[in-house]
């Protein structure tokens, strides 16, 4: 299964990343619209605000050597490298993304402090204790083994370093298992966005407890980010986007036509935006 899902993820992002950048820019993640999702703001500013809010929430004031796990085209990596005057390394399964991130580093004069590699997050090509900040923003949902994913993030983290993981989750299931309808809804999201499965935030917390990560904190920011999908849906049906979709290929078209799955997932409380941080 893993080989197949890796190929699907690579192909999905190889074909869609250029269009996303044309429409939305370099940040391939949710935006932050205030604690209750009510703040009106420019969509790209909302994405930058999410990065800043995450840093504030996790109490990160400095970093020297950063790993961005699932880096896209280097949006977070390069933002953090510039903000902290740090070295940043990004990994992705997509050669197209890695190449574009490298180009963007050159454009921003950050080539000497950044590198972007095609690598598997479950088998990272880095020594133990390499990074003082491991950052994973919306990549955990793609991982076919959530435990191995967090173990690898922990392994490459320096003692005293901080892990920040933000990922799509489903609702907690302690008190009530997922219904057949909820499971069907999730399966549709998995199919469209090349996800093996997602888990709940309490399940991620249980994995982190076993690492053993210290000072673990979690939060659910679903309300703060849910409006993002309204803006994505609106942008998908502009002339520029429609032309881009027609040239990007079938998987990208299917993704665009299925954006409502995520919006309705948030609306019904099934999809959750989960945060976890801790120190080694």
Automatic annotation (TrEMBL):
InterPro entries the UniProt entry points to: Erg6_SMT_methyltransf, Methyltransf_11, PiNMT-like, SAM-dependent_MTases_sf
Region ranges (SAM motif II): 129-137
MF terms in GO: methyltransferase activity
Keywords: Membrane, Methyltransferase, S-adenosyl-L-methionine, Transferase, Transmembrane, Transmembrane helix
Region annotated SAM motif I, chain positions: 66-75
Region: SAM motif III, residue numbers: 156-165
Biological process, per Gene Ontology: methylation
Pfam families: Methyltransf_11
Domain Methyltransferase type residues, every copy: 67-165
Superkingdom, natural source: Bacteria
SUPFAM superfamilies documented for this protein: S-adenosyl-L-methionine-dependent methyltransferases
Regions that span the bilayer: 241-262
Family statement drawn from the similarity comment of this UniProt entry: Belongs to the class I-like SAM-binding methyltransferase superfamily. gTMT family.
Protein name according to UniProt: Methyltransferase domain-containing protein
